[in-house]
Amino acid sequence: MLSGSIPMELGTLFELEMLNLSDNNLTGNVPEEIMKLSNLSSLNLSNNRLSGGGEVLLNIGGLKNLQVLNLSHCGISGRVPASVGSLMKLAVLDLSKQNLSGELPMELFGLPTLQVVALEDNHLSGNFPEGFSSLVSLQYLNLSSNAFTGEIPTTYGFLQSLLFLSASHNRISGIIPAELGNCSDLQVLELRSNRLEGQIPSAISQLSRLKGLDLGQNNFTGEIPDELSNCLSLTSLLLDSNNISGHIPDSLSKLSNLSMLNLSSNKLSGAIPSSLSRISGLKYLNLSSNDLEGEIPKTLSSQFNDPAVFAMNRKLCGKPLGRECANVRRRKRKRLILFIGVAIAGAFLLTLCCCGYIYSLLRWRKKLREGAAGEKKRSPVSAGSGGERGSRGSRGSRGSGENGGPKLVMFNNKITVAETLEATRQFDEENVLSRGRYGLIFKATFQDGMVLAIRRLLDGSIDEGTFRKEAESLGKVKHRNLTVLRGYYAGAPDVRLLVYDYMPNGNLATLLQEASHQEGHVLNWPMRHLIALGIARGLAFLHSVSMVHGDIKPLNVLFDADFEAHLSEFGLDKLTIATPAEASTSSTPIGSLGYVSPEAALTGQATIEADVYSFGIILLEILTGRKPVMFTQDEDIVKWVKRQLQRGQISELLEPGLLELDPESSEWEEFLLGVKVALLCTAPDPLDRPSMADIVFMLEGCRVGPEIPSSADPTTVPSPVGES
Q1: What is the pLDDT of residues 149-170, one digit of tens each?
Q2: Which residues constitute the domain of residue 682?
Q3: Is 182 a domain residue?
Q4: Residue 250 bears catalytic tag
Q5: I need a surface site. Which of 23, 147, 312, 659 has the fewest CB within 10 A?
Q6: How many other β-carbons are positioned within 10 Å of the β-carbon of residue 722?
Q7: What per-residue confidence (pLDDT) applies to 672?
Q8: What pTM was computed for the model?
């Protein structure tokens, strides 16, 4: 947190070899005396607020031994001076995130030892610089977020040592030169958001070490080359927002290391290859806004059950789109026809049997009458009556066992399955409250005015006995800030229902969105604090009973009539996975994009520490009003908050509705403490994150005042269904 100007006395340290003043609040010009330190090999002034424009670099030619120059994000403007070209030993040049403009000086391309060049996030212009192709030692080149035009020179194929090339967010046109395939060591190629066209060159398949390929938001045409499957090291393939046509190559399934695949907003057609589900590490998939058709492969739809992954494909059907396929309709029609045929045939056979029985009965009676007159015999009609009485007795015996079938089990009262079906209108689509990983949740309005939430689990649940045992166990997990299980139902075939209290005030995602549209006034600081504290208390209780949530996000935070937060979607894995073996190999992704911790995204394992990370992200979203998905891969919400704190721009963190906070008030300090708690929760090392019990203690210290009473405390108030 150093401030003020850089002291000129540093220029008297003639033997100084390394000077690092980065990540401070230093202002003013760089003293000329520092530019005379001829023994200096490393100069780092990044992340400060220096002034003087490009004058900082004018006298830099005196640093003849300089090897590392890092002036990233320190406020330099103007042009890159030619004096940089006199640093003949320079290996690392970082002038990123400045206000530099104009064209690059030709002298820059004469530095034979240059290995790293970072010029992203400036206003540099001119043709795409061909001069870099002469720097045969170059390994890292980042020119993204500038205003370069022209085409990518074919001479870049001479850069045999190049590992990273990024030119995203410029105005580059033309095609990708096939000569780039000669850069055999290239690991990352980013050309997003330009004006590139033509086909994706198959020469890219020669880049066997390529890990990241981002060609999104361009004008590429043609088909996805099959040869891309030769890039076996690929972990990220982004081709979205182009004009690519043809089928999705089945060969993409060979990319076993792929974790991100985005082919959205193109003109792809045909069926989705089922082989994509064989990519075990695939965590993110987007195939929306294409012309794909046919049924979504079941293994893929179970792995990615978010409809947005497959949306805007009119000819696609199946789960999770909820659109029935034509072949399924044909099978149902055939079954119906077969059923009707069997029923008609059965009725016909039954009629024949009845007619035969009546005919034989009449013949028997006729023979008896023709027998010995006067001999009294038992009437066949009497025998028939006795048989009828026996039949009725038999039916009564079977009826006594009807109460042994599946029932709707409620912990505090009696509700029948028939009443539940009527309350949801036979699970009508209009009564759907939400769609989640574990099935649909319906609003059930009963005749006496009682309202409940009914979750219908997806097909493929565990057997009935185990389901009842797990549901009984889950019903015992009760806390004021959790959605409490009130009852359950297990019936054949594979019908599994869970009954919860109805939460009339929606979820946190909707509440934050509405607050942003109304300038935040409906969600002031005390309310935000109570919401965060409620979530923390519910999660702390889950951890205290050795339960891991695994998918904490705003959609899973519900509000009762008093706007008290209730954490939902927990403890359901045991109710939906058939066997432990299947659970260990489940391809269901852990957590949700933007909220999942880095280690959980890599390992696929839900842990208590990963829950703490997800809570930290939600806490930052509650405090700042910014969604984690709004940020890029290079800067997530955690890095953004840290950067604002380093710059001292704390007011930038405040969501518009919180701008009324007085910097001298206690609420301001409470807000800052909340931000610090969130940063502790999102520590990169899971072992550095606090427990949820400690987080509750810290958040309780954020604010002193009465809490809002809740009428939905399951530990003190009986279930509303128990009062009916």
Answers
A1: 999 999 999 999 999 999 999 9
A2: 508-700
A3: no
A4: no
A5: 659
A6: 12
A7: 87
A8: 0.50
